[in-house]
Amino acid sequence: MTQIPTAEAEPAAQNVTIPESHPRTEGGAKYHRILVIMNPVSGQHNPDETTRLIETRAARAGVTVEVRRTEGEGDAERWARGAAEEGFDVVLTAGGDGTVVEAITGLIRSGNKIPLAQLPSGTASQIALALTISPQLDEALELLFEAPSKVVELDVGYLPQHDRYFALITGAGFDARVIEESPRELKRRFGFMAYVMVGVKELFRLKRRSITLELDGKTKRVRGHTAMIVNIGRIDKANISIGPDIWHHDGVLDIIVLGAEGLRENLALAWRLLRREYRGSRHLRYYQARQRVRITARPPLPTQIDGDPLGETPLEVEIVPKGVRVLVPEAYDPTTPPEAPIKALA
Ligand SMILES: Nc1ncnc2c1ncn2[C@@H]1O[C@H](COP(=O)(O)OP(=O)(O)OP(=O)(O)O)[C@@H](O)[C@H]1O
Question: Does residue 103 contact residue 116 with C-beta atoms inside 8 Å?
Fold first, then answer.
């Protein structure tokens, strides 16, 4: 994977080792103008404290920082899209996956001139955690300053019908119902547990139906209640990976079809996922596509995109390999998925 240099070279201070990918100033800054896109209502973070943390650290490094608070949908995308034009050399999100994906969309639409850094301040913050960014905000912030870091390219998915991008998962069925039923109030009160509680309740409402998958033009009919198109398959807060071989740097979309009904089947499925036993169940099937996926269901299923309700099936997705540039810890290796790959799929 190519590493992309990220900031203009500064004159090196004597006796300071400057990593090739990140020229720095003496104050430890790798970037000089940081645009912070903060969602003040995401997760359980305190926006005033997060702002103080960022501004204090930036002042110490002599770096210009502008913190903007979103007021609703669209702000993060618009600000990220205009950030390079406005002279910023990095966008830092302080929010959850919804905020990150909006910023990713804005950066892609601006031609990816600058990278994205993240402070995981959302309920799940799966994108940041999958890139091994620390959940401790001060540690995550240091990637812009003293901590060893680099920029890598992350695959994303694109939904042409909706003209929207995603980084984690877009899906139809169970995941969409959980998102629909997890209001902001519940997430603020219980954090990630909100999704778990709603998930357990929704498990019992699931009914199998006929699902049609079109994978790079080939049609498959399956029975299930959920079909997910996955880019990032790790749910760090639940310590599970929802499938084998799912890797957000491989240019491949992974499709998972779930069909377990009732307590017994669902417990058996959860146990499998926890033990990473992905093969051999008719209620858990995996497929892959390199270009395009289309999902239809009879009767239709509700859909979601990276944690936002979307509408109903059909769901159509294209992959955008290496779609966006993101800041990660230096030790992060985009060429090696964290688990040994399991090749034989259902
Ligand atoms: N000031 C605001 N008031 C209410 N909603 C907001 C505000 N700013 C942004 N939003 C909405 O917040 C949603 C994104 O939330 P985000 O994903 O950042 O946090 P989260 O849901 O707590 O975390 P995660 O997605 O990681 O579980 C978007 O739907 C966006 O429109």
Answer: yes
Ligand 1 contact, 72 CB (< 6 A): yes
Q: Which two tokens stand for residue 239?
A: 């310590």
Determine whether the shortest distance from the Cβ of 226 to ligand 1 is under 6 A.
no
CATH numbers and ranges of domains, the chain? 33-147 (3.40.50.10330), 164-322 (2.60.200.40)
- Among residues 214, 305, 224, which one has the least CA distance to residue 257? 224
**Largest Cα span, the chain:** 68
Rounded Cα distance, 9 and 21, in Å:
10
Whose C-alpha lies nearest to ligand 1, atom 17? 98
Q: Is the CB of 241 under 6 A from ligand 1?
A: no
Structure tokens at 37: 């896109």
Distance CA 18, CA 23 (A): 6
Closest by CA to 148, choosing from 36, 63, 22, 52, is 22
3-state secondary structure of 323: strand
Is pTM beyond 0.90? Reply is no
9 exposure class (CB count in 10 Å sphere: 0-12, 13-18, 19+): exposed
> Cα torsion for 255, 256, 257, 262, to the nearest 10°?
-160
User: What is the ipTM score, two decimals?
Assistant: 0.97
Q: Summarize pLDDT for 119-135 with one digit per residue, the tens.
A: 999 888 999 999 999 99
User: Would the pLDDT of 50 be above 60?
Assistant: yes
- Mean pLDDT computed over 6-33: 50
